[in-house]
C-alpha cells in the first residue's frame, strides 16, 4: 500500500486571477485556487464544492478579510469560508476541504491525497 500524495500541476501563474479564484480539476475533485496578492502566503486551495448546496461554485465567490482571516463567500447563500482552515464562519460544524498549494516556477501545484486514487482503483 502506498500512502503517498502527489503535487499535481493544476494551472500556471498566468491562469490566476488576483483577489479571486480559478476552478481546476484534480483527481480528488474540483478545487478552487485563490490568489490574494496582498497576503503571505498568497495562494490558497479549497474544494470548489459548496458544502451547503453541493454545487461547484466556490471559485466564483467574493474574497475578503473577516477579522483578519482570508475568506471566500459562497456565491449561493453567502456563507464565508476561511481559506486557511476551510471552516465556515457562520456554522462551525461545516468546513470545506483545504489543500496545500505552492508555486513551482510558473506552475501552481496542489497536493492531492493518494487515498482517493487507491480506493477508486480498488
Ligand atoms: S488580499 Fe488584497 S484585499 Fe485582501
UniProtKB/TrEMBL annotation:
Outline the extent of the Rieske-like [2Fe-2S] domain: 6-111
Q: Which key words are in the record? A: Nitrate assimilation, Oxidoreductase
Stored InterPro entries: NirD, Rieske-like_NirD, Rieske_2Fe-2S_sf
The domain of life for this entry's organism is: Bacteria
Gene Ontology BP, a term: nitrate assimilation
Classification via CDD domains: Rieske_NirD
Query: GO terms for molecular function, please?
Result: 2 iron, 2 sulfur cluster binding; nitrite reductase [NAD(P)H] activity
Signal peptide coordinates:
none
Q: What is this protein's name?
A: Nitrite reductase small subunit NirD
